[in-house]
Amino acid sequence: MAIDKAKIEKAVRMILEAIGEDPDREGLRDTPRRVADMFEELLEGYELNGEYTWFTESSDLVVVSGIRFYSLCEHHLLPFLGVAHVAYLPRGKVIGLSKVVRIVRKYTRRLQIQERMTMQIADEMIKATGSPDVMVVTEAVHLCMAMRGVKTPAPTVVAAVRGAFATDKSLKEEVYKIIEPHRFRGFPL
């Protein structure tokens, strides 16, 4: 998906005019371009497709925890931000750890809802690792809830639990213990 930055600039200029601002005044003159550049950066996930690097070393459990992310709520175009925790049981090979972060970025850098994003990360991890045993937990604060509407910065936790993590309660609990020090503690609003 290519970002049409000229169209975004035009739309931002129209928004500035609609709220009674002068888009030609000094402080706003470059705002339409800046907003277009921002959207190009924040929505890079549509363009991210990676090759996976595998290693034949194995492990009983792999957890990449505390992966910070920023995404945009598709309902209000406001950010939601937090951390993702990704766990899987290798099946004779492990994926390069940076690839796990790239998978998270691929789905967080899109217009999203947290629930779908979490499921997409889990599904991509299954595809990337060849293991059906995947668990993804995302924790986030949504500025659309904190800044407007209910005006409450309540962290939202979403989990996608697949394979052995869905059937083995002790395995799921082990992941929660591992990620505990890396949990999202929010931020003061």
Strand numbers in spatial order across the main sheet: 5-2-3-6-7
* Total domain modules: 2
CATH architecture of the largest domain: 2-Layer Sandwich
Strand content: 15-25%
Condensed summary:
Helices cover 39% and strands 23% of the residues.
Write the layout of secondary structure elements.
Blueprint: H1 5-18, H2 31-42, E1 54-55, E2 62-73, E3 79-88, E4 94-95, H3 97-108, E5 111-112, H4 114-129, E6 134-142, H5 143-146, E7 156-161, H6 164-167, H7 169-179
Parallel strand pairs: 2-5
Antiparallel strand pairs: 1-4, 2-3, 3-6, 6-7
Q: What would you say this structure looks like, in words?
A:
The chain has helices at 5-18, 31-42, 97-108, 114-129, 143-146, 164-167, 169-179, and strands at residues 54-55, 62-73, 79-88, 94-95, 111-112, 134-142, 156-161. With 189 residues, it is α+β, with helices and mostly antiparallel strands. The protein has two domains: 5-42, no CATH class; 54-182, GTP Cyclohydrolase I, domain 2 (2-Layer Sandwich), CATH 3.30.1130. The strands form two sheets. The chain has a five-stranded mixed sheet. The protein is elongated and about 60 Å long. The two termini are 34 Å apart. The mean pLDDT is 93.
